[in-house]
Write a structure and sequence with these properties.
structural constituent of ribosome, Ribosomal_uS7_dom, two-stranded antiparallel ribbon, mainly alpha, Ribosomal_uS7_CS, 28S ribosomal protein S7, mitochondrial, 49% helix, 4 strands, ribonucleoprotein
Length: 227
């Protein structure tokens, strides 16, 4: 009896049926389950705002093995690693990311000691900060979507969701690094793309600019989004 109640309360809400009638499994936990809070600053904010009593009896999803309260944990680095991973080889991907950060550090230190002391404050030495700036500079704002009006398809510029825009920026950086061929390793080409993107240069930046130019060229159809 307990097993049946558990199945009805946890498994059944997470099932979805498509048009063919087959059952597809998604998350085991229903949508009303809150995501876990594992950051120390977020936990302190909850206690400061006295929300701990309200959240005491709220169902919460368990944290994954990659969620940690360490100060070295960076959500963007985690997402970039997952986008770079292929065939589930996460250990290999983490080694590539470590070598990438190491090469970024070496390149920035060489530049740091080659410029006059008065210009050294403008050089970023933290590889994570370069990654953040590169992704922010490559993140698009608009995209084109096909909308039918009067039986005619129009390419209409619409605002892009933050999750999709961030994923697209990461994908552009990775693809730009892989387009340089097999002459160099990925941990040698990826640092160059990240450094160029952090300075608003490189292939990934040009891809974002081309997308915005296409949206600008089709701005006459922007009102079709609300009709």
């Amino acid at each position: 009896m307990i097993v049946r109640k558990t199945f009805n309360s946890l498994i059944l809400p997470s099932l979805r049926c498509n048009s063919a009638g087959t059952v597809q499994f998604y998350s085991v936990f229903p949508k009303n389950y809150m995501p876990p809070v594992f950051k120390k600053d977020e936990l302190e904010q909850i206690y400061e705002e006295e929300k701990n009593e309200e959240l005491a009896h709220v169902p919460i999803r368990p944290a994954t093995n990659t969620d940690t309260c360490s100060e070295f944990h960076d959500p963007l680095v985690k997402k970039f690693t997952n986008c770079l991973m292929r065939w589930g080889k996460k250990e290999l991907t983490r080694k590539i990311m470590d070598r990438t950060f190491e090469n970024i550090k070496i390149a920035q230190l060489q530049k740091y000691y080659s410029v006059p002391p008065m210009d050294r404050n403008e050089i970023i030495l933290d590889p994570k900060e370069i990654l953040h700036r590169a992704v922010d500079n490559c993140t698009p704002v608009l995209e084109l979507t096909k909308i039918m009006r009067g039986g005619i398809p129009y390419q209409v510029p619409v605002p892009m969701r933050d999750v999709r825009a961030r994923h697209l920026a990461i994908t552009w950086i990775i693809k730009s690094a892989k387009e340089k061929g097999n002459a160099e390793k990925l941990y040698d080409t990826l640092p160059k793309e990240l450094i160029d993107a952090a300075r608003n240069e490189g292939k990934a930046i040009r891809k974002k600019q081309e997308m915005h130019k296409q949206c600008e060229a089709n701005r006459a159809y922007a009102h079709y989004r609300w009709l």
